[in-house]
Amino acid sequence: MHKHHSTRELASPQVGSAIGIALSSRPAQPVTLVRPHAAARAARFFAEKFPGRSMYAVKANPSADLLQILWDNGITHYDVASIAEVRLVARTLPEATLCFMHPVKAEEAIAEAYFTHGVRVFSLDSLEELSKVMRATNDATDLTLCVRLRVSSEHSKLSLASKFGAAPGETKELLFAARQAADALGICFHVGSQAMTPEAYAQAMERVRAAIVDAGVTVDVVDVGGGFPSSYPGMEPPPLERYFATIHRAFESLPISYSAELWAEPGRALCAEYSSIIVRVEKRRGDELYINDGAYGALFDAAHIGWRFPVTLLREPDSNARDMAFSFYGPTCDDMDHMAGPFMLPADVQAGDYIEIGMLGAYGAAMRTAFNGFGSDETVIVDDEPMVSLYLDDEADAVPSNVVTL
Ligand SMILES: *Cc1c(COP(=O)(O)O)cnc(C)c1O
């Protein structure tokens, strides 16, 4: 399932690859690498294999280029959470279908989404929000209203369990009221990001079943949300097909009509492999490397929630040193600009070396800031493979010719 690519597998450094960029241009600023072919492959995987409709959760990476790649590869629906995201997708992909899946919205945002951008799908988790949606749309009769249930995040690396979602005691009344107001009624949830087992969805679907039985309403849409994992060091999930099979089985056994639809809102899984960064080591102090990107750049998650990302030393010829564990300091003057890792790199890493930090397409790219004058907008398209892929085995022709398979 997982293929790990290192510079060892490259016959020679080429422009169009991480090592080629690092060695040919020796950039003084961090460089973002994007891999359109990796995002395209993820989109095709979801479009073809998820047993329902996959809509992309735009907050994971709002790049217009990425939106276009996903659209070109079969993703037609987009989960947007703010009016800025609504406008962005409406502008970038005028034919896309937008679903406003943030359960707490500004009334002005709902009105603009409905009247200006044709949005018809809204989520909510309270009677107040239901009133707001009805008021803002002048009691529209063509709405799909998705009631967000609170579900456990126990199987996920990032919890989304406390902020949103109707609790069991509130669900019946809310489903009933939404059913009266809606043209189509949906139920949605989010099991938390980077769900490490399909069981997370099976459990949440039991909560959906209980809610449907309890309220006795007809449900037209079941939306299993995001949470589909990517692969990171120490967080290698089972194959996505297992998640899809579990979800399909649970969906088929729900007390809903044959015409009911199954939706999902993958964010991370569609874009994590899309980008990475090349950073330079500016200083080494023992097992600490001072690099030129960090907590305020593309590495927020590495610093603030201790997320581990795959790393590769970009050096030619390859280092023969054994790997050891390093932590990173980012470039700002802030002590919090520290990433504990551990990041495994050859023991002879030194100032001036370049490192690729992978799997930053989800959330990393979206959360960059220019704090303290650091960061860079330089982006280069490459066609080598991401360091790790959940989708590589899926298509034999995806293995590029410069990878020697041993
Ligand atoms: C963040 C979010 C997603 C995407 O979650 P991932 O874990 O990145 O797949 C989907 N739906 C909603 C409502 C979200 O808030």
Could you characterize the architecture of this molecule?
By secondary structure, the protein is an alpha/beta fold. The chain contains eleven helices and 18 strands. It has helices spanning 18-25, 36-49, 64-72, 83-92, 107-115, 127-136, 168-181, 199-215, 240-252, 268-271, 300-304; strands spanning 31-34, 53-57, 77-80, 97-100, 121-124, 144-148, 156-158, 184-188, 193-195, 221-223, 261-264, 275-285, 288-291, 311-314, 323-329, 338-346, 354-357, 379-381. The strands form three sheets. Strands 1, 12, 13, 14, 15, 16, 17 and 18 form an eight-stranded mixed β-sheet that branches. Helix 7 crosses helix 8. The longest helix has 17 residues, at 199-215. The protein is elongated and about 65 Å long. The two termini are 16 Å apart. Residues 1-12 and 396-406 have low confidence and may be disordered. Pyridoxal-5'-phosphate (PLP) is lined by residues 57, 59-60, 79, 101, 190, 193, 225-228, 265-269. Residues 57, 59-60, 79, 101, 190, 193, 225-228, 265-269 line the site of pyridoxal-5'-phosphate.
